[in-house]
Amino acid sequence: MSFGAPLFLLALVALPVAVALYLRSQSSRRRAATAFASPATMPSVAPASPGWRRHAPMIAYAAAVAAVAFALARPEATVAVPEERASVILAIDSSGSMDATDVEPSRLAAARQSVEEFLDDVPEELRVGAVAFNHRVRTVEAPTTDREEVRGLVSGLEPRGGTATGEALATSLRILERPGDKGKRPPAAIVLLSDGKSTHGREPLPLVREAASRRIPIYTVALGTPGGTIEIPSRNGAGVVREPVPPDPETLEEIASVSGGRSYAAEDRLELSEIYERLGSQIGERREKREISYAFAGGAALFLVGGGLMSLGWFARLP
User: Fold this and answer.
1) What tens digit of pLDDT does each residue of 192-229 get?
2) Do 29 and 93 reside in the same domain of the chain?
């Protein structure tokens, strides 16, 4: 146990002093009684001695003072708090081909909308991270229950560069390596939102097989149509030309199938909440300090009430 304001514990020093004064007053009372009547006549003068009951209310009041001192010192106890261990990484393609408008308003905007709907649909306790990539991994957000971190990452993406799907998967798997309780890795999944055409970095399929061996399914969202194009500057610098950027849904379907996930089209994004349902849950524990002043304050109230009731019930007065 630790304390947020330990100086209040100095009040406990007053208790031994109060006990000494109380014992002194009891000794004076006994001497006064002896002076009033001899020991031989005491049973007839005071036939019913309260015995231990005389001291019980004062003991309760002393315990109440001690409890108040502990409450003011803001005690903190380390407790085990349940924590959802399941994690999902959103791997978001921000390559130049994601600027195509064949998916309204654009492929990247559709990916953003899918992410927003996923974050809105899944339970708050699910840990969600993100990996943004084009021809390399550009931004990484570790799994967390803070949705605003992921929303901020996604909202700042701009389409440019090539596509390194394999690098994004490798980074996602590395993030999900964290072991859970007793060394067991918690349930995990990857959601890959891309137009599917990998042009840079390592081949994605070996990494997909690695994910399958680790039982990390990859769910893919294919963005784009065969007629998709983007505008790029012409080689002579005079204006722009339209370049075809057909998606590669076959590769995305293979990624999902091999890993044990499922592939979606852009129009299916409302079904992404199913990922959490299939992912399952694993509740673990984390150690957390929590203030328990309320327990000591409640104890102080009980001791005060108890002392008062004993005093009234046995002696018809309050000390």
Assistant:
1) 999 877 889 999 999 999 999 988 999 998 888 888 88
2) no
